[in-house]
């Protein structure tokens, strides 16, 4: 498919990731139809986008004209039926397999047959999502990183039946967004989480076994390996519940005990210590950090 024919892109789900994806699409000249279940969520997403654009303007990275372009390029709707207007769809709703499969089945009915349906899932099989549609050759993973306007990577994940034409199209689209798309196969965790999560898990084991303090472990990885953030600070940023969920997916999907989530991680999640978003994880956060 010629990416020049892609003008109107629907983003389904206006949470953390959908908001960032909508912003990047609009900044790069695409018309965005941003969809979520409630108007209040959509208004909040628009406010977040404008706040980020204002911040970039104050730093001299964007102009008032860029802001107008973004304002003009995004419309919001609580109706999935607006997908009829879309040339391309990126789904970024909550990470629940049944919800995603239901949305893909509906998108399959609503959109023209040639439209590519991409998902931003972190851990659900693209092949499984594609099987909810009659066009699995046009279903593909586009795994953006958080925060989307800042992070350069998009993992591109073909399902078992995804066509080469679909892969080529999303590769070109990713580059048009100023990102670096990298292809990964449809196995649990793709590349990013397959490599990252065992490292975070090992850091938590090291903490639990008293190999080092939180500060010692993060400092070793920052100064010794040149990582911009230590693994424990990164786990807090991602959310300890999300880390546990992805480790469970790797553990169950690959069946290798090396992915077994650390008992300390399970205990912290059970206690509601979820990292930045709850105010307490490996570090303590106050309002100004949130
Ligand atoms: N947060 C991350 O760091 C990250 C990174 C990469 C990928 N992801 C993936 O991105 C997706 C979204 O994650 P998030 O962190 O933005 O979650 P989030 O909870 O911030 O947002 C999810 C949004 O989906 C909406 N939603 C739920 N059901 C819907 C429906 N039927 N129709 C329309 N909208 C609906 C919710 O109202 C919510 O606004 C997930 O698949 C997640 O695995 C997340």
Strand order within the widest beta sheet: 3-2-1-4-5-6-7-8
**Helix-strand topology string:** EHEHHEEHEHEEHEHHHHH
Domain module count: 2
The whole-angstrom Rg is 20 Å
Basic shape: globular
Q: What's the CATH topology name of the largest domain? A: Rossmann fold
Largest sheet: 8 strands, mixed
By secondary-structure content and strand pairing, the structural class works out as alpha/beta
Mean pLDDT, to the nearest integer, reads 97
Bin the helical content.
40-55%
CATH level-4 homologous superfamily of the largest domain = NAD(P)-binding Rossmann-like Domain
Describe the structure.
The protein has 290 residues and is of the alpha/beta class. It has two domains: 3-183, Rossmann fold, CATH 3.40.50; 193-278, N-(1-d-carboxylethyl)-l-norvaline Dehydrogenase, domain 2 (Orthogonal Bundle), CATH 1.10.1040.10. The protein is 46% helix and 13% strand. It contains eleven helices and eight strands. The protein has helices at 16-27, 39-58, 64-73, 97-110, 126-130, 164-176, 192-208, 214-225, 231-238, 240-254, 263-270, and strands spanning 8-12, 31-35, 74-77, 88-91, 116-119, 139-144, 153-158, 180-183. The protein has an eight-stranded mixed beta sheet, with helices on both faces. The longest helix has 20 residues, at 39-58. The mean pLDDT is 97. The structure holds nicotinamide-adenine-dinucleotide. The site of nicotinamide-adenine-dinucleotide (NAD) has 24 residues, from helix 1, helix 4 and strand 6.
């Amino acid at each position: 498919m010629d990416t020049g024919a892609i003008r109107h892109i629907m983003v389904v789900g206006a949470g953390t990731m959908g908001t960032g994806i909508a912003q990047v699409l609009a900044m790069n000249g695409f018309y965005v139809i941003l969809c979520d279940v409630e108007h209040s969520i959509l208004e909040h997403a628009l406010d977040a986008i404008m706040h980020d654009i204002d911040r970039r303007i104050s730093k001299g990275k964007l102009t008032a004209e860029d802001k107008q372009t973004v304002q003009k390029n995004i419309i919001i709707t609580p109706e999935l039926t607006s997908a009829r207007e879309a040339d391309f769809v990126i789904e970024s709703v909550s990470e629940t397999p049944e919800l995603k499969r239901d949305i893909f089945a509906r998108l399959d009915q609503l959109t023209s047959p040639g439209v590519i349906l991409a998902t931003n899932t972190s851990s659900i099989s693209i092949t499984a999502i594609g099987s909810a549609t009659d066009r699995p050759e046009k279903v593909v993973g586009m795994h953006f990183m958080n925060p989307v306007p800042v992070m350069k990577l998009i993992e591109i994940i073909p399902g078992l039946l995804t066509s080469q034409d679909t892969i080529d199209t999303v590769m070109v689209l990713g580059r048009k967004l100023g990102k670096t798309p990298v292809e990964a196969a449809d196995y649990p965790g793709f590349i990013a989480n397959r490599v990252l999560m065992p490292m975070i898990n090992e850091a938590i084991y090291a903490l639990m076994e008293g190999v080092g303090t939180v500060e010692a472990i993060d400092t070793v990885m920052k100064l010794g390996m040149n990582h911009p953030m230590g693994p424990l600070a990164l786990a807090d940023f991602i959310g300890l519940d999300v880390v546990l969920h992805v480790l469970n997916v790797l553990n169950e999907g690959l069946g290798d005990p090396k992915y077994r989530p650390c008992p300390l991680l399970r205990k912290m999640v059970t206690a509601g210590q979820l990292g930045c978003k709850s105010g307490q994880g490996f570090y303590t956060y106050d309002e100004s950090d949130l």
